[in-house]
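In this supplementary section we document a worked example of the pipeline. Step one takes a protein sequence of length 275 as its only input; no multiple sequence alignment statistics are reported here. Step two produces a three-dimensional model, which step three serialises into structure tokens for compact storage. The input and output of this example are shown verbatim.
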Amino acid sequence: MKRTVFAYPYIVWMLIFILAPMLLIVWYAFTKNGAFTLTNLGAALRDPIYMQVLARSVWIAFEATVICLLLGYPIAWMLSTMKKSTAAILYVLFVVPMWMNFLLRTYAWQALLDSAGILNSILAFFGLPPQNLLYTEEAIMLGTVYNFLPFMVLPIYSVLVKLDKSLVEAAYDLGANGVTTFFKVILPQSIPGVISGITMVFIPAITAFAISRLLGGSKFMLYGDLIENQFITLGRDAWPVGSALSFILLVLVLISMAVMRRAEREAGEEGGMLW
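The serialised model returned by step three reads:
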């Protein structure tokens, strides 16, 4: 028996739960009463509110990705330089929260940032005035970074831990300082992990909707909220426009993945070109 037979259940699962829903979205996006039309897509693209929400979602996802990269790279580097036993413990601490339900982690931040939450209680203990932390754009950003930071740390760490330390030692022996060694030796070899981390953070962040609802309230609608509103709140008549909005997001995600894949391939080809 060929080993490929073990992949059949997964292929069937993909066809039913991934390909079929995507084809259904495309069908609703480009049909009206069973006939092909571009009306739904045109309505989605021409509406300034829809495009404003999309731009806001892309910008927040971009900001969250940059913050995760600025925080995640130093964390991954510190983990890679620690003793294996210590790094393993800290690695598990990063992974364990990911086992918890995504909504539960977000609800936890809602409890922390609430006007009567823990953070304001600490401020009150020191005689400081309470802060309006919940239902702000900063709260959305905080929740997004918290939920997706491990997806930035782990790919970079997996690359840095395999880094050839002899190249770093050679750079120091040739007179390079710490900054030069980082930009000429360490960073080029870690680019594949960085690109993987960016992909794993940016794409889920642009499609997330629970974070904006729980931590942003009704003040900040993101693209995921907009799509859900079309399908859940407005009913079946809004499904074509909701499918068109989903199709636009699908195209953006595919473009992002293609760009990241090409960048990762080029980084892999140039991995040995350090100087």
